[in-house]
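Quarterly update, task 2.4: 6-diazenyl-5-OXO-L-norleucine-bound model.
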Amino acid sequence: MKYYLLTIALIIFYSCKKPSQRGLVAKKAMVVSARAEASNIGKQILEQGGNAFDAMVATQLALAVSYPYAGNIGGGGFMIYRLENGSIGSLDFREKAPALATKDMYLDSIGNVIPDLSTRGAMAVGIPGTIAGIFEVHEKFGSLSMETIVKPVIDLAYKGVVVTKKQEIRIAEKHEDFALANKDTILFAKAWKENDTIKYNHLAETLTRIMKNGKDEFYKGETAVRLANFIQDNGGILSVEDLANYEAKWRTPISFQYDDLRIISMAPPSSGGIAMAQILKSVESYNLETLGHNSLKTIQVLAEAERRAYADRSHYLGDPDFVNVPQDKLTSDSYLKDRMSNFSFEKATPSSEISHGKVDIVESDETTHFSIVDQFGNAIAVTTTLNSGFGSKLFCEDLGFFLNNEMDDFSSKPGVPNVYGLIGAEANAILPEKRMLSSMTPTIVEKDGKLLMSVGTPGGSTIITSVLQTILNVHEFEMTMQEAVNAPRFHHQWLPDEIRMEPNRFSKDIIRQLEQKGYQINEERSPVIGIVDGILVLSDGTLEGGADNRGDDAASGF
Ligand code: DON
């Protein structure tokens, strides 16, 4: 009788459990990005025998055409890679401040931040790094010719890209900003509607010159001169010398252990790797699997670890070529244990009581993500950005692309929040040729020494917490890649002192209980938190894509 009841109970349990929802599964190789057109071009390059790095170049450029909201050649980004043989590395093609930039360039005569100067128009533009980035990737790891890789992108630009509903809305939302940022009427001034096709002829011409003449076309050639003149005509300070001096940099990634996972992510000038290491190591001993996905206690412990990590971010992190970032200390077990020592499940720790931790510095020293796994076993994670949607909104009609407003990622003035509400200090102050601090967190995860996942997202300050929730969803809560990407997300960043939640995706009961413990909940600030794309290696070696339906994202594979 006992066994009979147990069997019935098990049958009921398993029949009530929601069937798992898988994303696209492919046998050999996959690309997941913000647009089907870009994922398909990346896949096509892989099918032609190219590797993940060839596909990186193709996908990055195809996003510049098909996803001008964040895909770019006028911005920058980061790439994490893991080769088939297990070696890892990262490329920093983040923008830099122009040589004429100064610490107080966004302040008026009495020291107040001038509204919009660091976010809209020519003064907001950092030296773009994308073209240097793709050529660096191609030179080190590429296997196909640049012509083979870039040709389908140029064809797409001439053929044009169909406007989606989401894109129609985004273009309409920025209508006024486009008019304010540009002297002339730009391609995007038109009220484009869903199913219209936008042709990018000028961008196709620029890409053709770059394909023929290489990186120097963008940094030293005709395109460089036209670009610098355009920015200066619009009141900016970026010069031909700034472009000529720009270089992408290979950097050692941050890598750390969480349970039986090895997480490999971006080092400064991104804050992503360090902050994610701090948060995950701070919560590791709490057994999240037992506490439950998005349960009261899981939200509490994650929010408290996030609060402390973002307080450190704001004080200590900046461009490592300019400031000494105490990376080892900030991610050490003893430091993090001490940081969490005043955490209690009883009540929230107010952010006013949390400052950055005490670390002795020893003196001597709107974005998009795509993931690719190739048929050879190489994996990459790339997050790339213009910063805000359509960057500075300044569109170089003649060259066919938007320019970033990445300068806003610096701290214009200590204590004054940027567009993401992030506060910075001296470590992220503006200096000529310095890189602005980023939250972009392209990440690769290994399990038992093998590739498990490539993941990343846009979302400004919420990038770090979105990536880590996605990893936890797979690892602790046994979700598929697609479920992990779909799951509701929340975010705490020290200041403002609130937990941001995706609206109507958390129960009223959880929200009430959190409020009773002293947490402020904000469901209004972010309609969506992150647009995560990822690839998971399944136990049989096939690949599952997670393409976030918060955007028009799509997986493509074979
Ligand atoms: O580098 C950063 O952290 C930001 N510029 C990223 C911007 C972003 O994710 C915009 N997306 N919502």
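Highlight for this quarter: Confidence is low (pLDDT under 50) at residues 361-365.
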